Amino acid sequence: MIQELQVRVIPSVAASMSELADYVAREASIDRRTITHIRVLKRSIDARQRTIFVNLTLRVYVNEQPEDDPYVKTHYQDVSEARPVIVVGEGPAGLFASLRLIELGLRPIVLERGKNVHERKKDLSLITKTQEVDAESNYCFGEGGAGAYSDGKLYTRSKKRGNVEKILHVFCQHGASTDILADAHPHIGTDRLPRVIEQMRETILGCGGEVHFQTRMTRFIVQGDQVVGVEALRLTDGSTVEYRGPVILATGHSARDVYRYLAAAKIEIEAKGIAVGVRLEHPSKLIDQIQYHRREGRGAYLPAAEYSYVTQVDGRGVYSFCMCPGGFVIPAATGPEQIVVNGMSPSNRGTRWSNSGMVVETRPEDIEGDDALKMMHYQERLERDCWVQGQHRQTAPAQRMLDFVNGHLREDLPASSYAPGLVPSPLHFWLPPSISKRLRQGFLVFGGKSRGFLTNEAVLIAIETRTSAPVRVVRDNTTLQHVRMRGLFPCGEGAGYAGGIVSAGVDGERCAEMCAEYYKSL
After folding, report:
1. SS3 (DSSP) at 323
2. Residues 6 or more apart from 499 whose CB is under 8 A from it?
3. Is the separation of the CB atoms in 99 and 76 below 8 Å?
4. What are the pLDDT digits (tens) for 159-177?
5. What number is the average pLDDT over the span 13-20?
6. Strand 422-424 vs strand 226-234: parallel, antiparallel, or unpaired?
7. How far, in Å, CA of 290 to CA of 71, rounded?
8. What's the rounded Cα separation, in Å, for the pair 289 and 298?
9. Rounded CA gap, 312 and 110, in Å?
10. How far apart are the C-alpha atoms of 112 and 91, rounded to whole Å?
11. Taking a C-beta distance cutoff of 8 angstroms, is the pair 430, 407 a contact?
């Protein structure tokens, strides 16, 4: 017999399968000796009151053994002789587009400007050591995209747009913990996600697909109103190569050379709203105490606490973004004379710090001009200003939180996870007033909601600009092809149609499906 139950238990019971089985036996009047296995289907924490509970949906096996795998496996066929599709970019959108193409009997040819996920890690470590950024291999460019080394959170609100559950199951099939199927806010972790990405690449290659690293697309090959392939530059030897087939353009939100190419080639793009602000870093113990309403914080059985804040200031949203409990702040620039920060967490979320983007909604009408690239240019100006304030290195300008609100500056800063180092800087003075004034008001609101949140134990680290793409590559809502160029499928976060790993994966699958339909129409 198999029963599904919903229970509400204290954290120590939720953390022990033996205690959980005892609890289920009592509550459901089941002989404890007959419970052979319990599978957690859904898990969430309710910390709204002083007594913290864990809500669980359970599948209880009574005198039965569970199935081998809790996830649904996808069958991937041999496509070595199939028709090709060019996939530009091997981030989440490109990876899931490639895997879906294989399911549909098409052969993905993946072009990735960066290095494989193992070699890429070496370049990331050099940022701190040399204070220089490799423009082709960094926290945004390389196998796995921006998500590979910037947290691996799998929470999305895009459930109406595709099969989110399938995305999670594919991750499990390639080595991710099956906990992501149960957790309310699933998270793989930067220490585990690279291996999962490697396994996904091995599936692509094992089925007859191709993956070309250090190969940067330079232009489309166009016949009339149809994209029939791409020209690319091999960065290892400087040679030029052509690849033929319809194109899924999944470059990620930081491929600014691609945006410039599209604008110059008169391929329709439009400015898109972004969010701009800082990384706010607190001691993780303090966030645990605030969110769990108790002096001991998380204790022995609870994870590092998360938070989410949002308010409106002068007609624009001010909100927390990409919260990383027990994580790090990382240098996410993609070229010289830039400082950009982002956040990540290892799977155990066990560091001394918790951070979040604290950002202000910025719309195209907030920036002067009618250039489709104006939001990108705005990002670039802010990132260079930050580099100047950071003393022309990857040392990031920073200010204590309460000092920022009060317009003060002191030379001492709290300890930080940001490895390249911090430089005291009057962010309240040099950040654009449209950003700094709204952030200050937002912090007052958030501090009023959560006592202890507004504190000089926290530090603002500038600047967070890469929350989303500053451009949308305009596509038809039905065919997902570009509005004018047949055979071109703008895809994922870089094209302006996703916002995170899961939604990018969902969009990648949809573009693959539309690409298969496109082939049928030829």
Report:
1. strand
2. 156, 158, 468, 493
3. yes
4. 445 689 999 999 999 999 9
5. 96
6. unpaired
7. 36
8. 7
9. 42
10. 9
11. no
